[in-house]
Amino acid sequence: MIELMRVDDFDYVLPEELIAQTPLERRDHSRLLVVHRDTGMLEDRSFSSITEYLRPSDVLVLNDTRVIPARLYGQNPQKSGVVELLLLRPLGDGHWEVLVKPGKKARVGAEIVFSPALSCKVVDVTPSGGRHVEFVYTGDFDSILETLGETPLPPYIHERLDDPERYQTVYSKHAVSVAAPTAGLHFTPELLETIEGLGVAVVPLTLHVGLGTFRPVKADRVEDHVMHEEYYELSEESAAIINDRLRAGGRVFAVGTTSVRVLETLADDRGHVRAGSGWTDIFIYPGYRFRVVDVLLTNFHLPKSSLLMLVSAFADTQTIRFAYEHAILERYRFFSFGDGMLLV
What is the domain range of residue 14? Predict the structure, then answer.
């Protein structure tokens, strides 16, 4: 009889003071915990030493999504007080899926006004309790959003971010995400230039990150969790470079769990990837057989999260548990603005 995994197996206790509230002054000055998957050996390094674990034949795969200023504050003319909207994903023709707080001010048919140039009407309630809204605006929606919106930070960050660009990777390009692919926050243009100078191919893909990525899994059994969908794109050029490097004996070095989800969605049984775009709900947890990713750079993840399960699948649950215990003991910084972990 196969023993089912419990979500509680991916829980751990983190001292609150280890949750990084602000980024370091230099992106690449964070620490890097190197985990050797074959032996379980751990190394405490600095992030800039990542170049020592790359080979000239490797391909470094980055998620070039960009976070939009997705938090808006408005008013329902029929009710007093502020209404907060968080954009989740576009549905086309000015329609969006959003979260609303407080929900009682955003019943179906309600209007919410943000400025003379922007308002929305609540069309429906989503199955998860959010809202489907239709925006009405004068001018360019993206420009209005840049003016009125705020960059949303995860709820465990309580400090104000002086420079919103610090919650963007230096290579961010396609603005649709509501959260950053945080493993990439450690890179600087200079470090990427050094990596390319080693002969490593650096290629982009896109996965637009939704809030579901960071939410704890609420099911009791891992297998019962229903994974959220996220939109991805991998170009013909990027796919060709990845496959060429693999044929030449190189490794796929994935930056972040978001890159892993795209690569594994598009990989075949031979370990090659195809170009494509669409929505993925791939759920990777222990027992999954990786088809294309060889090395993973990631951050430290929330307890009971699907991201922690993915990382535990890439190494193994005991190795990751030991690594996290070590990181807590050595006072690593956790979560979005925290330190990195390299699984080799």
Answer: 7-67+162-343
